[in-house]
Amino acid sequence: MIDLFSLGAEGVQKEHFSPGRVKALALKGVHLWIDLTGPSHEIVSELQGIFGLHPVTAEDILSLNTRTKIEDFKSYLFVILYGVYKEKNVMLRELDFVLGKDFLITSHRKKIGGFERLKGEKEELTRLLRRGPDFLMHHLVDEEVDNFIPVLELLDDVIDKIENSLTTKPDGTVLEKILDLKKRINKIKKKLIAQQEKISFLAKNKYPLISAECQTYFRDVYDHFFTVTDMIEDYKDALASSFDAYMSSMSNRMNEIMKVLSIMATIMLPLSVISGIYGMNFSYLPGAGHPLGFWAVILGMLLLIAVMVSYFKRHRWF
């Protein structure tokens, strides 16, 4: 899917995409926003020819999970960043930006809420394109950075459920959830660390296609990004605490089991001695010839069990 927006005297207009139309508008120096959703090789090749994109740029636009980067070419600036969205889990999505003097090309695999909202706000889009494509790129980046916070906050509920499970009945499924969430958070953190560095470049380094005024706004985005990285660190610490609590719970549970088994073994030891004595092949054993001898031994064993259990309880061994 391709959305083409051009800035005219009366504001932004959405136009039908065709290579010829894009080329004509580009030659006139009209400010353009071309948003690609799930771009094809054919479309990227056509844009490559119109705007003089490097083959490496075209390849990166078509590739998935490309590393975060900023590449400054002669006629455009190529930026790859990542956003987040909630599907079944919190997922990362790649966002590609090609910023030129009079155009901005954005590329992503699925529709993005912030992008779609801006397309429906003609006055806001007109205002941004009039200020320049760099301001449009800032707005889209800022929207995605702000979107991190509500999406990542959904992880709070997941962590709360894990912690509640630890206080009720921890089992193997709780450990699986902890390790799975830890893996996903580490993956997000890895992308965010690299992205924080690249956003700092946009905020501090000089790029011909980003005005000094616009760069001031990127500094604000950079500041906001610290909130996001702090959240990830907090979630990582919370999961580490949950993992420690789980291991402690399992250790305590094992200790309880071992305590019960030890008490049972202690009780059985004297009983085994008594039964072993009366199992010896001697001609005479006390009470062996008495009709109630067997029951007397059983009664003695039961009394011994009662005395030992009473002793253990008195000393709070269980």
Topology (SSEs and partners):
Layout: E1 2-8, E2 11-15, H1 19-27, E3 32-37, H2 41-51, H3 55-62, E4 69-72, E5 76-86, E6 90-100, E7 103-108, H4 113-119, H5 122-131, H6 133-152, H7 154-168, H8 172-204, H9 212-277, H10 293-314
Parallel strand pairs: 3-7
Antiparallel strand pairs: 1-2, 1-3, 4-5, 5-6, 6-7
Helix pairs in contact: 1-2, 2-3, 5-6, 6-9, 7-9, 8-9, 9-10
What does this structure look like?
There is one protein chain. By secondary structure, the protein is α+β, with helices and mostly antiparallel strands. The chain has helices at 19-27, 41-51, 55-62, 113-119, 122-131, 133-152, 154-168, 172-204, 212-277, 293-314, and strands spanning 2-8, 11-15, 32-37, 69-72, 76-86, 90-100, 103-108. It folds into 2 domains: 2-250, Beta Polymerase, domain 2 (2-Layer Sandwich); 278-318, Methane Monooxygenase Hydroxylase, Chain G, domain 1. The protein contains 10 helices and 7 strands. A 7-stranded mixed β-sheet has the order 2-1-3-7-6-5-4, sandwiched between helices.
Short description, anyone?
This protein has 318 residues and is an alpha+beta fold.
Q: List SSEs in N-to-C order.
A: EEHEHHEEEEHHHHHHH
Total E-strand runs: 7
CATH architecture of the largest domain: 2-Layer Sandwich
| Average pLDDT score | 84
* Largest beta sheet: strand ordering: 2-1-3-7-6-5-4
Search tags:
10 helices; 7 strands; seven-stranded mixed β-sheet; Methane Monooxygenase Hydroxylase, Chain G, domain 1; Beta Polymerase, domain 2; 318 residues
